[in-house]
Amino acid sequence: MGGVAMQMPFVDAHLHLQDPRFKGKVNEVIGRAKNAGVGLFFCNAIKEEDWPEVTALAAAHREIIPFLGIHPWFSDTAASGWQHRLMAAAETLDRTFGIGETGLDRSCRIDFDIQRRLFAEHLELAAARNWPLSVHCVRAWGALADMLSTFSLCQPLPPVLIHSFNGSTEMMRRLTELGCYISYSEALAQQQTKLHQTFTQTPSEYLLLETDAPYAKNPDRKKGPNQDTVNEPSDMVELYRHAARLLQVDTDELVTRIWNNATIFTNQNAAGC
């Protein structure tokens, strides 16, 4: 007797459910996403103060994979011993766990050398345990690629996700050659021909999609009495459909591919990046 094939869930590969803009309504936001078919959320902290809330959300919702780290915008707040406190937080979780959001950002006021040192510490921590690493990069693509490449000469990289990628096609190729996953956000829904070209040339085995909620506003979201213009993980559905049109593939095919990529990325026994 033949069965009905089940559709894989959508994956939101980067978001911030602990953000104050979701305060008091995060369970509603998660519920809308689940009802829309989202079945996996990579929830990223941006500072140490976020860690308890991110871990609590993960404890309450099995679909959430917590990522703990310090964003480059807050790299000057990293207090001595943060790695030990992060590891202690990780030990309270009986599930897949990641490091992030970390990275490099030349557009912010924090000294770039401080950012580099902190990112190197995140990278070393993730590599030591083969934990997945979620990376932010703005106007620092060469520095990021150089750091990852140099690190890989000494020891294997951990699984690395470059979130909300908006670099060049050449940089995408350099990063995927290192084995990094490339995640695209809702900028894909806008008229950015160069980004579209880069997206369609990204190797399918390294492709991920994200909302970066609530930061990346969905231009199609209409402001209503109970709805603002920040985006939500439920917006993943339209993003997948748009991405599938760009790739000229069936949406279900893309959903399956990204689900497989996401589960490989978060598998602590995965080889390489």
Describe what this molecule looks like in 3D:
This protein has a single domain, classed as Alpha-Beta Barrel (TIM Barrel), CATH 3.20.20.140. Mean pLDDT is 92; it is low at 268-273. It contains nine helices and eight strands. It has an eight-stranded parallel beta sheet with strand order 1-2-3-4-5-6-7-8. It is of the alpha/beta class and 273 residues long. Strand 5 (133-138), helix 5 (141-154) and strand 6 (160-162) form a beta-alpha-beta unit. Helices cover 40% and strands 15% of the residues.
- From the 3D structure, determine the CATH topology: TIM Barrel
Low-confidence stretches: 268-273
Strand and helix order: EHEHEHEHEHEHEHEHH
Radius of gyration: 18 Å
Beta strand count: 8
SS summary, helix count? 9
CATH 4th-level superfamily? Metal-dependent hydrolases
Q: Which structural class do the helices and strands define?
A: alpha/beta
Strand content: 15-25%
Instruction: Based on the coordinates given, report the CATH architecture.
Output: Alpha-Beta Barrel
CATH hierarchy, class: Alpha Beta
N→C terminal distance: 41 Å
Average pLDDT, rounded to a whole number, is: 92
- Residues in helices, as a percent range: 25-40%
Task: Provide a concise account of the structure shown.
By secondary structure, the protein is of the alpha/beta class. It contains nine helices and eight strands.
Write out key terms for the chains shown.
273 residues, alpha/beta, TIM Barrel, disordered C terminus
